[in-house]
């Protein structure tokens, strides 16, 4: 388990520019020896000539290189599952899709994380990527700094990840049972809405059902270019995050029991219940306002609702959960007792709420953004009309 030559598996299809960029970042990274296998797995497509040429010609100076051209088109879901299965052969594996870029420290972090996770049954995988955006609500996000180099998230990673054979085998055993996830309300609606081509929604659902977590870094070891391709319409910088460039001698990892930075699949801090001295099973934390239904007795949310307010907090510190841990006074975050009805009239300051998430919007930029969005929606509507006309 966790051999020093844990292989790097690059997942590619039809994006030559993306593949070159990722391979160049891999070439610049630090490795403990010259026995690191690089496997470039290319899904079969109509024309893989350019991608195959790049993969075959790439010089890898840190171990053996193997180019695998799949004999049939697997699609992203089956392709990732095929690559993840290599963890059983090697003991562990690092998987990188072709539109990623890595920090020079990514390999050391992956190996150190895999070793740390050994024997810890609550860890379902390792992320190289660090989220700074709540994908459900598009709010800024940052995990609470609790003095460690890692945090825990009930959300699997697809933008740079590693699995040990045990972590992967647990997931595959669950996956092969053909679980029904569409009606599980503990799984975010946004995740359930993803295409059946997504392997990630199943890995996330597995973590939720089994109460497991991915171990995430506080500073990212990979970043995502979101290059246009089969599953992405346009290039975007939305998911770009700062990379770690300082040389790290030793990462300081927390056990989940000692961490205050433990998050559910909705990006909500699960350690808030302990801070409020409430049973975890009786508290729903909904600071981002994304949990539309709850049967919990106590509800902590940014929404103004007609329940008895037990306590309220300001929304000033960042990240948002720090306001609870530091007990910041204010009327922007509310802890309710849902058993008691009470009319609450609290006027929200829209500008303050807006600028909590956005530093500044220039007026001209705002107008340009509205114009571009109107044009985009008009084109989208026209495209749908033309498609209907073609059918008839």
**Low-confidence segments:** none
Arrangement of strands in the largest sheet: 3-2-1-4-8-6-9-7-11
CA(first)-CA(last) distance: 59 Å
Count of helix runs: 12
- Residue share in helices? 25-40%
Description:
With 392 residues, this protein is α/β, with parallel strands linked by helices. The chain is built from 12 helices and 15 strands. The protein has helices at 16-27, 49-57, 75-84, 86-90, 106-117, 165-175, 189-192, 200-210, 272-275, 322-325, 350-357, 363-391; strands spanning 8-12, 38-42, 65-69, 92-97, 100-102, 123-127, 150-153, 161-164, 213-217, 222-224, 262-263, 283-286, 298-301, 307-313, 333-341. The strands form 3 sheets. A 9-stranded mixed beta sheet has the order 3-2-1-4-8-6-9-7-11, with helices on both faces. A 4-stranded mixed beta sheet has the order 12-13-15-14, with no helix packed on it. The protein has a two-stranded antiparallel ribbon with strand order 5-10. α2 (49-57) links the parallel β2 and β3 (65-69). The longest helix is centred in the C-terminal third of the chain and has 29 residues, at 363-391.
């Amino acid at each position: 388990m966790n051999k020093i030559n844990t292989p790097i598996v690059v997942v590619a299809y039809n994006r030559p520019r993306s593949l070159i960029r990722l391979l160049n970042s891999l070439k610049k990274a630090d490795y403990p020896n010259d026995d690191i296998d690089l496997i470039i797995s290319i899904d079969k497509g109509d024309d893989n000539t350019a991608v195959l040429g790049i993969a075959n010609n790439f010089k890898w100076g840190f171990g053996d290189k193997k180019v695998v051209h799949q004999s049939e088109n697997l699609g992203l879901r089956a392709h990732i599952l095929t690559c993840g299965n290599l963890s059983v052969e090697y003991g562990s594996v690092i998987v990188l899709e072709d539109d990623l870029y890595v920090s020079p420290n990514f390999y050391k972090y992956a190996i150190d994380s895999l070793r740390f996770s050994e024997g810890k049954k609550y860890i379902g995988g390792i992320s190289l990527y660090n989220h700074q955006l709540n994908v459900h609500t598009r709010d800024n996000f940052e995990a609470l700094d609790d003095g460690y180099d890692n945090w825990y998230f009930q959300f699997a990673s697809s933008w740079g990840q590693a699995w040990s054979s045990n972590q992967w085998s647990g997931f595959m055993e669950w996956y092969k049972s053909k679980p029904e996830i569409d009606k599980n309300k503990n799984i975010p609606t946004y995740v359930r809405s993803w295409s059946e081509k997504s392997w990630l929604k199943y890995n996330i659902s597995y973590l939720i059902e089994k109460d497991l977590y991915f171990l995430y870094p506080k500073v990212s070891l990979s970043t995502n270019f979101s290059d246009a391709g089969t599953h992405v319409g346009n290039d975007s910088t939305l998911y770009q995050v700062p990379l770690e460039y300082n040389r790290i001698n030793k990462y300081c990892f927390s056990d989940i029991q000692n961490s205050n930075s433990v998050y559910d699949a909705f990006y909500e801090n699960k350690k808030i219940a302990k801070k409020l001295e409430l049973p975890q099973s009786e508290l729903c934390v909904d600071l981002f306002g994304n949990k539309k239904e709850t049967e919990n007795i106590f509800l902590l949310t940014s929404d103004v609702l007609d329940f008895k307010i037990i306590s309220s907090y300001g929304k000033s510190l960042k990240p948002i959960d720090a306001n609870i841990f530091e007990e910041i006074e204010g009327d922007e975050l509310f802890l309710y007792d849902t058993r008691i009805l009470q009319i609450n009239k609290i006027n929200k300051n829209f500008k303050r709420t807006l600028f909590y998430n956005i530093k500044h919007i220039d007026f001209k930029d705002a107008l340009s953004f509205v114009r571009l969005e109107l044009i985009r929606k008009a084109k989208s509507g026209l495209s749908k009309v033309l498609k209907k006309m073609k059918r008839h």
